[in-house]
Design a protein that fits this description.
The protein is mainly α. 65% of the residues lie in helices and 0% in strands. It folds into two domains: 33 residues, no CATH class; 89 residues, Metal-sensitive repressor, helix protomer (Methane Monooxygenase Hydroxylase, Chain G, domain 1).
Length: 142
């Protein structure tokens, strides 16, 4: 069964342990415009930062929309009482697609964000390596 693509967009959510306030998060992640909108400018000594995935942003969004279509297809399959194994096959395909996306994003993060921090050295480099290590551990557990 082929699952069709939908035009919806994925929502961005953040886990509570990372919720440090919009302005602080925006300044930490380099979202200068969001920090300014929240009443804060970039922290002194921190220039605006572009995420590692920025150059492939449109490709990533297209890929996520395709994955979203796969997931919506699962819902339709259940609504249509499709055979269990066929649904599980599609679940496996959706899971593989998300894992593949996560690995691509991780690679871009390592090549851009972590590499930049490592080149600068200091505590920021250590923080970026620890952050990437934690993300890898979460991916391995999933």
């Amino acid at each position: 069964m082929t699952v069709t693509e939908t035009g919806g967009t994925p929502e961005h959510t953040q886990s509570p342990e990372h919720d440090t306030g919009h302005a602080a998060h925006a300044a930490h992640t380099g979202h200068a415009e969001a920090a300014e909108a929240a009443g804060d400018g970039p922290e002194p000594g921190h220039e605006a930062h572009q995420h590692g995935y920025a150059k492939q942003r449109d490709q990533h969004l297209k890929r996520l929309r395709r994955i979203e279509g796969q997931i919506r297809g699962l819902q339709r399959m259940v609504e249509q009482d499709v055979y269990c194994i066929d649904i599980l096959t599609q679940v496996s395909a959706g899971t593989k697609a998300l894992q593949s996306f996560a690995l691509q994003l991780l690679e871009e993060h390592l090549r851009h964000c972590v590499a930049d921090a490592a080149a600068k050295g200091g505590p920021e480099a250590d923080d970026k390596v620890a952050e990437a290590t934690a993300a890898i551990a979460r991916l391995l557990r999933s």
